[in-house]
């Protein structure tokens, strides 16, 4: 059991039960998965770029990403069907909690000119999405070995019924929201 999992069970669950008025532990919202997505549009011109993106994502997440392919050809963008265009990873259980711990305590404080995360980036069902402009905020990625700065999207999927429950859950994990 990871450190953040233990913190969730011992601290967050009792606090949210009281705060949200839940009758049982099963009503308390929890994080079900974290999805990392990196779109690499430049990969159309050079196939090496997708390999670098996959290796960066592998270092960040700790598991091998799935390469996403173009679904439909678009002549204006010079892309063809079935070409690699990005990569994605879905983290669950221990890896998810370990990634979230590293994200909150190590990576987010390393963001340049950081003033807090946008508190309105919820989707209406308690899920939170954020974008990272540079992959170098993660300590696993070595600054000298990157070819170019790439961004990625991080989506935290919860079992919350609405945005208020999702926000309460992430605030209980000490997520640095903007005031």
What is this structure's SSE topology?
Layout: H1 3-20, E1 31-39, H2 48-61, E2 66-69, E3 84-91, H3 93-107, E4 128-132, E5 152-158, H4 163-172
Antiparallel strand pairs: 1-3, 1-5, 2-3, 4-5
Helix pairs in contact: 1-4
Describe what this molecule looks like in 3D.
This protein has 179 residues and is of the alpha+beta class. It contains 4 helices and 5 strands. The chain has helices at 3-20, 48-61, 93-107, 163-172; strands at residues 31-39, 66-69, 84-91, 128-132, 152-158. The chain has a 5-stranded antiparallel sheet with strand order 2-3-1-5-4. Helix 1 (3-20) packs across helix 4 (163-172). The longest helix has 18 residues, at 3-20. The relative contact order is 0.20. The model has no long low-confidence stretch (mean pLDDT 83).
Offer a concise description of the structure.
This protein has helices spanning 3-20, 48-61, 93-107, 163-172; strands at residues 31-39, 66-69, 84-91, 128-132, 152-158.
- Amount of beta strand: 15-25%
Helix content: 25-40%
Radius of gyration: 18 Å
Described by strand count, sense and barrel closure, the largest sheet is: 5 strands, antiparallel
């Amino acid at each position: 059991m990871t450190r953040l999992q233990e913190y969730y069970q011992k601290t967050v669950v009792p606090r949210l039960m009281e705060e949200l008025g839940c009758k049982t532990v099963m009503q308390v919202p929890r994080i079900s998965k974290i999805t990392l997505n990196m779109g690499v549009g430049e990969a159309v011109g050079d196939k090496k770029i997708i390999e670098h993106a996959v290796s960066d994502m592998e270092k960040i997440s700790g598991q091998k990403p799935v390469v996403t392919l173009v679904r439909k050809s678009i002549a204006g963008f010079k892309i063809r069907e079935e070409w690699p265009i990005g990569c994605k990873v879905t983290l669950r259980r221990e890896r998810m909690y370990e990634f979230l711990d590293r994200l909150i305590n190590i990576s987010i404080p390393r963001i340049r000119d950081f003033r807090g995360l946008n508190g309105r980036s919820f989707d209406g069902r308690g899920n939170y999405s954020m974008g990272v402009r540079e992959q170098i905020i993660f300590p696993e990625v070595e600054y000298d070995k990157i070819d170019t700065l790439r961004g990625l999207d991080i989506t935290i999927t919860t079992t919350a019924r609405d945005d208020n429950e999702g926000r309460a859950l992430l605030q209980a994990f000490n997520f640095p929201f903007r005031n």
